[in-house]
Design brief:
By secondary structure, this protein is of the alpha+beta class. The chain contains five helices and two strands.
Length: about 130
């Protein structure tokens, strides 16, 4: 776990104009390499299909080894349709993902996924209070 992950968020936010490279090195892992590469030539106006997106997201999640935890952060579209891919149910069963919601899935020994929590945003009203 990168040490910055345990620091308060305000200690990790740098303004995009901040050119202090040494400061950036304290919160960025410059040795990180993604375990997943997108090789298709996607660009503005040339999008991946919903099925391609679902396949890619599931592939990303299955990179984790047994006993590892994977935290997957994304905006609502991918998260909404990932539910369909993992559970083999239509996304309408749970609806669209909302602001700052999270879901938890458990990968079973047979390779199937069990949703433990889907689109929980009960913490959002508390985010603005102290």
């Amino acid at each position: 776990l990168h040490p910055a992950a345990q620091a308060p968020i305000q200690d990790n936010i740098l303004h995009w104009r901040d050119n202090d490279e040494e400061k950036w090195k304290t919160i960025m892992d410059y040795n990180y390499e993604s375990k997943f590469k997108i090789t298709a030539p996607y660009c503005w106006g040339c999008w991946e299909s919903r099925v391609e997106m679902q396949e890619r997201l599931e592939q990303v999640l299955t990179i984790a080894q047994p006993g590892e935890t994977t935290l997957f952060l994304s905006h609502g579209g991918p998260i909404t349709f990932l539910y369909s891919r993992l559970t083999k149910e239509m996304w309408q069963v749970h609806g669209t993902s909302t602001y700052a919601c999270f879901s938890m899935y458990e990968r079973e020994n047979d390779g199937t996924w069990t949703p433990l929590i889907v689109n929980d945003s009960s913490h959002v009203p508390k985010m603005g209070t102290r």
